[in-house]
Amino acid sequence: MMDGRKKTMLSCAARALLGAAFVLLIAPLVALGQLSNASLTGVITDASGAVIPGVEVTALQVETNTSFQAVTNSGGRYAFLNLPTGHFTITAKYKGFQTIERSGVLLSVNQAANLNLTMPPGTTTTVVNVSAQAPLINATNSTIGTQLTTKEINDLPINGRNYTQLLALTPGSTPIDVSQSAGGQLAPGGSNNPTLQGGRNRSNYYMIDGAPNIALVFNGLALVPPLDSIQEVKVETQATDTQFGGTSGGFVNLTTKAGTDHFHGSLYEYLQNNVFNSRNPYLPNVNVQPFRQNEFGFSLGGPLVLPKVYHPRANKTWFFVAYEGFRHNQSGTVLTRVPTAAERQGDFSGAWVPGGTALNAIYNPYTTAADPNNPGQYTRTQFTGNIIPTGMINPAAAAFLNEFMPLPNFNDPNKARGLNFEENIPSVYDTDSLVVRLDRNLTDRDHLSGHYMNFTGQTGSSSISVKPMSTTVQNPNRNITAEWDRTQTPTLFFNVQYSYMRSDFPIVSTTAPDYVDTWKTTSPDAFPNPPGAPPWLPVYSFTYYTTPFGQGNNEQDTTNQQLTANAQKIWGEHTLKFGFNAWFSGR
Questions:
Q1: What is the pTM of this model?
Q2: 168: helix, coil or strand?
Q3: Helical ranges in 335-451 per DSSP H
Q4: Which of the 8 DSSP states describes residue 312?
């Protein structure tokens, strides 16, 4: 019996191992973790074109003075599988040949660059510096995309300093505005959520430092970091690499700035104000509407030094922090339609459908009867003179109209529109965005990095109610990542990343202190609140008329956690990639 149990256990273990191996093999086809760094490969030859094995190749990142090492194989090929984005100097050294130094090599997000070098004979003390050549080519995959560099992000005009507005510059990008699919309304300046290569714009996949930046509430962009914290943005309109999957749209891969060996920072304030604005030339008698917009912030990055606590001999830890605040206050004129004094008493004899095409007929609901001429349909009798008898008016509705709905105050010269109420309503639109990033080189082979991001947006406006009422839409989002890179050998690389994304989307309607009390006094049993519920009022809408209420109260929140593990192996002329991606989503 024991032998049989052991055989059964061994058989189960063997099946488990085979299953695990199968998962590892198909993982790249299912969901390989999205890397935000770059790779650099190439072949080193002599003047005759023969490959040179054993060449020592060094990639020095200029910003942090960090070097990475590789050695060419028997085919003369070298490979750096995971390099941070930025500027590099590539140096090749081998006995009997002059040292080759290629400066000004710029690597971008998820770039698979190829750089071949030719070494002339000579001594290693002779250095040949090449600083101006053709740009690096991608000879590894057929991915189609556009890169937005720091220079373009900083130099191109952007209203509200929101980087998504630059996505419209991407070939194959089409701006779209369809209800919620338009983008993040709570991002400074409004977000642009375009369709890429004809796909649905809600199918776009947004990333920050390789981690998801998706709000599952509406499957769109979650948070917008300060513009000064963005290193670059890569838009993949046709991602053929298996590490990109799970969506039919484009990929927007953003990387944040990391600290460097020297301290750098910025401090700014952008101001717009109605005192700088002119009158509307078509409305010369109307004053300029109140308008205030302030956008302010700072950024600071460099080596991490804590006096008397942490002061390494060599810079191994770098930090970068950026904050941006956005304040927008503007008033706008609202023209709408409210019930007249006669209509509140049931007299709709003068109520016309907007457009002036027909009388807004009011029917008696108690006269509903089957239509003998049209089986399955019903008829009703219109009130005589289009006037509802006073005894048939609901007291709760009458109390509501008298207490909360304003009376007409506007005589529209265009009678066909049927508008009779005008009011100037202020709106508020505020956001705060914070980014903190840390990078540390544990060893020459191990690198740790992580970021914390917090974005809070809030917008609101008052209603036309007699008693003040406003609706506030909030959008607090948090994104946290921790990442470990390990270069086991020059041809074997590992990467592990954990990310946490929290997205809230509450809608809160606030009222004057006596709003609810007045309603309960006038109609205590009309709409009672459920036990334990806040003292909120119901939201009404009316055909052909406006409502004094906002959007009502709502709460939507999601949490998304992701764990990814990746491995890359150079095997002769081939690069093998393996990956694992686990998602945990909920509220």
A1: 0.75
A2: helix
A3: 341-344, 395-404
A4: -
The encoded tokens of residue 38 equal 């770059």
Domain with 75 in it: 38-140
Contact (CB, 8 A) for 462 and 506:
no
Burial class (CB in 10 A: 0-12, 13-18, 19+), 209: buried
- pLDDT for 14 equals 41
Beta bridge partners of 426: 331
Q: Which residues, including other chains, have CB under 8 Å from residue 401's CB and lie 6 or more apart?
A: 339, 344
Stretches in the chain below the pLDDT threshold 70: 1-35, 131-144, 176-192, 238-246, 283-287, 309-315, 353-358, 415-416, 465-474, 505-540, 549-555
Please count the other Cβ atoms lying within 10 Å of the Cβ belonging to residue 14.
10
Q: How far is it, in rounded angstroms, from Cα 339 to Cα 312?
A: 74
CA-CA-CA-CA dihedral for 367, 372, 373, 374, to nearest 10: 80
Question: Tell me, what's the pLDDT at 129?
Answer: 77
Q: What is the pLDDT of residue 5?
A: 40
- Paired tokens of 552: 């009502």
Is residue 578 domain-resident?
A: no
Contact 191, 181 (CB under 8 A): no
pLDDT confidence of residue 273: 85
Backbone angles phi, psi at 536, to 5 degrees: -100, 155
CB atoms within 10 A of CB 33: 24
SS (H, E, C) 281-295: CCCCCCCCCCEEEEE
DSSP labels for 219-244?
Answer: TEE-----GGGEEEEEEEEE--STTS
| 54 found inside a domain | yes
How would you write 436-451 as a 3-class SS string? EEEEEECCCCEEEEEE
CA 521, CA 483: separation in Å to the nearest integer?
Answer: 59
Measure CA 352 to chain center.
45
| Domain membership flag for residue 342 | no
pLDDT tens profile 463-514: 776 666 666 666 788 999 999 999 888 788 899 999 999 887 666 666 554 5
**Residue 87: CATH number of its domain:** 2.60.40.10
Query: Number of folded domains in the chain?
Result: 1
431-457 burial, b for 16+ CB within 10 Å, e for fewer? bbbbbbbbbebeeeeebebbbbbbbbb
Q: How many CB atoms lie within 10 A of CB 389?
A: 10
- Run of H or E including 7: helix 2-30
Q: Evaluate whether 41 touches 140 at the Cβ level (below 8 Å).
A: yes
* Residue tagged 């529109």 (tokens): 417
Identify whether the C-beta of residue 209 lies closer than 8 Å to the C-beta of residue 483. yes
Nearest CA-CA partner of 232 in 81, 85, 84, 433: 85
What value, to the nearest 5°, has the Cα angle with vertex 301 and ends 297 and 304? 135
Q: How far apart are CA 489 and CA 492, in angstroms?
A: 5
Which residues have a Cβ under 8 Å from the Cβ of 422 and sit 6 or more positions away? Answer: 333, 334, 335, 409, 410
Is the residue at 125 inside a domain?
yes
> CA–CA distance from 561 to each of 388, 391, 455, 479 (Å)?
58, 59, 18, 10
